[in-house]
Amino acid sequence: MSSSAAEPHGAASAERHDVAPAERHGVAPGERHDVAPGLELRLALPAGAREAPPEALPAIDVSAIPGAKVTLRRGVEADGLSLRAVCATAPSRRWATGVEELVLDRASGITRGALGVSIERWDAGPIRATAQRFEQPFEAAGRAGARAVAVRGRHVLGFTGSEHDAALCSIVCVEPALEAGARCGPLLDAAALEGALVGPPDPDLLVRTILYAAEHPLPATASFGLLAAAAVTVLLARRPRP
């Protein structure tokens, strides 16, 4: 990689691997960053990329999620363009179909708050599901100080390992509004989550019960009624005799 390439900060200090340069104009040699065992995020860099200052990188707090950790915080800048990438992993014990919408919506909220841009328009695209991942593109417009800027990005959610841990990466690119998509587009097209992905985990008993109640409200109500009646019978049987 050329000497102008930026070095990682914080969680980005995980092993990085240089990759061949992209073919499109204005894209420098890229990098691979470890996200989880056997899983990497491939990033292309803008030509002339320089390291973003630490305070410009998004601060992500996952302490409220047991077992979660931020595995990558990466940021570079180049001639009015900024590129940011953040990845986190977490156990997926409460997974169920449809939870991806909540996860990606939350990721968009964190991204919006961490951009340092006054957002005037935010458009989240449809979630695209494959056998092993979910992806959602987004676009926005706003102002960074006096500058009108265009924002493009993508969330990628996959699963890895024998426990099907969730791995979420958000890549976002900000450029002058007059260039909307001209430089950010190729960078986002070249970004990819690669490696040993597995399918989503099966819902656990609690989640399956909730889903059954949502899909079959009358039988579920009857079942819960029987369970409640059984519990009352047990309590009455165990109460002290007068």
Features:
23% helix; 9-stranded antiparallel sheet; globular; alpha+beta; 242 residues
Describe the structure in brief.
This protein is α+β, with helices and mostly antiparallel strands.
Your description of this structure?
There is one protein chain. Helices cover 23% and strands 40% of the residues. The chain has 242 residues and is of the alpha+beta class. The longest helix has 22 residues, at 217-238. The radius of gyration is 23 Å and the shape is globular.
How many helices in DSSP terms? 4
Low-confidence stretches: 1-14, 19-25, 205-214, 220-239
Largest sheet: 9 strands, antiparallel
- What value does the Rg take, in angstroms? 23 Å
Beta-strand percentage range: 35-45%
Question: What structural class is derived from the secondary structure elements?
Answer: alpha+beta
Q: What is the percent of helical residues?
A: 10-25%
What is the end-to-end distance?
84 Å
Broad shape = globular
pLDDT averaged over residues: 77
What topology does this entry show?
Elements: E1 16-19, E2 27-36, E3 39-46, E4 50-51, E5 69-78, E6 81-90, H1 99-114, E7 118-124, E8 128-129, E9 133-144, E10 147-160, E11 165-176, H2 184-190, E12 192-195, E13 197-198, H3 205-215, H4 217-238
Antiparallel strand pairs: 1-2, 2-3, 3-12, 4-5, 5-6, 6-11, 7-9, 8-9, 9-10, 10-11, 10-13
